[in-house]
Amino acid sequence: MVLSTFEHLDENKQQRILAALVTEFSKYPLAQAQVARIVKQSDIARGAFYKYFSDLKDAYQYAFKEVIGRLHTGIAGPEMRRDPYAATVAFLQEADESQDRDFIRLHFTKNSGMVTVGEPPIAANATEWAVTTLCHSAISQALANPEQADLILKNLKAALLQLHVKES
């Protein structure tokens, strides 16, 4: 992830760099992203970029972690255990209304296969594992194919009912 020199920057500079990363990765897939645009927007030297991140993929992984962290609160908490369908719908709605919407969509349509950004922890219980896997898959598919979101959520709901997962 980020190198220790980045962690020692003041909060304002870190936020400026993060904003530049999010802007770049909201407009361009990782394969077309450019360090030059990032350093220009964040007002840092190109050499400084490589003191903060190993490479562009490293910077992307950091930005993804930050962006998803802003959205992930409801889907990862007790709401997910209580009503996974509602938590999934709420996450998709929040993602769609988020300032980071373009970043998230580009991640699922172009970038997800190019980087490893972490998987949800594997649950010990088979049903919990299945629910988590289904919900994450539904999120990925709905964000990559927004025109199919209703069908994807309908299928998720049916699958959860097959697993006897209660809906509130």
From TrEMBL:
DNA-binding region: 34-53
Gene3D superfamilies assigned: Tetracycline Repressor, domain 2
Any one Pfam family match given in the protein's UniProt record, by short name: TetR_N
UniProt domain HTH tetR-type: residue ranges: 11-71
GO molecular function, one term: DNA binding
SUPFAM superfamilies cross-referenced by the UniProt entry: Homeodomain-like
Highest taxon above the source species: Bacteria
Keywords, sorted A to Z: DNA-binding
Keyword DNA-binding: yes
Protein name from the UniProt record: TetR/AcrR family transcriptional regulator
